[in-house]
Design brief:
Elements lengths: L1 H20 L1 H14 L5 E7 L5 E7 L15 H4 L2 H8 L7 H7 L3 E3 L25 E3 L12 H14 L2 H17 L19
Parallel strand pairs: 3-4
Antiparallel strand pairs: 1-2
Length: 201
């Protein structure tokens, strides 16, 4: 009952309330990025959702489009702006995804939507992370986020898919709030950015 109907109802209710409560923050960040990025406030990227269905994820744009001499984008840690670092540290860049939740592309809670290029690298078991809607936060995010290996993240994602419940979702929401306040579980830095998934790590 919860998985099929009530979870979606909870998504709509909480996403709408959070959008209203954070509207002043969204407006301030919008104005800052509008000036800093010369009009490019949002970042859109195609990601695989439930059953690998494509959707456009929405985030605040915290990085420039700087490229090297070969025309390739520079590493993330070299393109992130000063304001972008603060916005990311406070997880404000994720707030626009509430619109993805309202649209039904995402849930508040679920496995994080990664890149399409990772799909062929997943094992059959790891691919099950797409059996539910991807989330803004999830069991992996409150159990290490960027401080754990990819294999551990996927293990936690599958645990969520199998154990999905109202109680677990409430627990994840609460732990997410605590993690954001304390900025815990993030080991990315200018010297040590998060490495891409290559199918083995």
């Amino acid at each position: 009952m919860y998985r099929l109907f009530l979870k979606r109802l909870l998504d709509l209710l909480v996403a709408f309330i959070v959008l209203i409560l954070t509207l002043p923050i969204l407006i301030v960040v919008y104005i800052i990025l509008l000036k800093q990025n010369k009009g490019n406030v949002f970042f859109f990227q195609e990601r695989p959702g439930i059953h690998q269905k494509a959707f456009k994820i929405i985030k605040f744009k915290t990085m420039t489009d700087a490229k090297d001499i070969d025309g390739k984008l520079l590493p993330d840690n070299e393109r992130i702006t000063k304001a972008g670092k603060i916005i990311r540290k406070l997880s404000i860049d994720e707030l626009p995804q509430l619109f993805n939740v309202l649209k039904g592309d995402m849930s508040l809670i679920g496995p994080r939507p990664l890149l399409y290029k990772y799909i062929p690298l997943y094992s059959k078991e790891q691919l099950r992370r797409h059996d539910v809607r991807p989330g803004i936060t999830g069991w992996a995010q409150v159990n290490g986020r960027n401080s754990i290996s990819w294999s551990k993240k996927f293990e936690l994602d599958i645990f969520y898919v199998d154990k999905l419940s109202f109680i677990l979702d409430v627990k994840i929401l609460w732990l997410t709030f605590i993690k954001v306040i304390k900025t815990e579980g993030v080991n990315q830095s200018d010297e040590r950015p998060m490495q891409p998934f290559n199918g083995t790590n």
